[in-house]
User: Fold Solute carrier family 10 member 1 from Goodea atripinnis.
Amino acid sequence: VIGVASYVGITTIHNDSYIPGNGSMGILIIPKPMNTAINFFIVTILFITMISLGCTMEVSKIRAHLLKPKGVAIALLAQFCIMPLTAFSLTKILQLGPIKAVTVLICGCSPGGSLSNILSFLLKGDMNLSIVMTTCSSITALVVMPLLLYILSQGFTGLKNAVPYVGIISALLFTLVPCAIGIFINHYKPNYSSTITKV
Assistant:
C-alpha cells in the first residue's frame, strides 16, 4: 500500500491479526507530487501568516516582556511542569502500554507551536507576549524536553530517538524568521503593516 503512489483513492486493509477492531480501515493514498504541492502550499501560507503576525509586534513591547518575564515564566511553568505531569498522570491512570505512554509523554513535553500565535491573533490577544513565549519555549525545549522524557519515561520502552530535534528547530525557525521580517516591516515601514495583516 505504501509503495503505491500513482493515484488518489481509498484502499481497505483487513484485520486478520489479534488486534481488536472492526475488521478493516480505510487509508487515503495521495500521489507524491500532490503531497509535495500541499506541503509547499501549507508552508507558504504559514510563512505569510507569521509575517503578518510579526507586523502586529512592537520592539518596545518585546523588550518589556523580556525585561519583566512574568508572562514568559508562567508559560514555561505550564509548558514544562503542568503539562508533562498531566501527561504522566494520564499514562498511569489509563494504564497505557509503553508505546502509547511514550507518545502521550512526548505530546505533554513538547513546546507550543505556531497555532497558539494564530489563535492569539484571532482572539486579539497580546501578540508580543505570544511570540516571545513560543520562542522561549522552543529554545528551552531543546534542553528540557529530553530531560523530562528521560525522567518521566523510566520503566517505559521506546524512548530511543523520541525527541524531535529537527521538528523543534524547524518550528523555531518558522516562528522567528517570518516574525522578524514582520517586525522589521512594522518598525521601518509601518504604513505597510495594516495591508499585510489584512492579507
In short: Residues 1-21 have pLDDT under 50 and may be disordered. The radius of gyration is 21 Å. The first strand starts at residue 9 and ends at 14. Residues 62 and 128 are 6 Å apart (CA to CA).
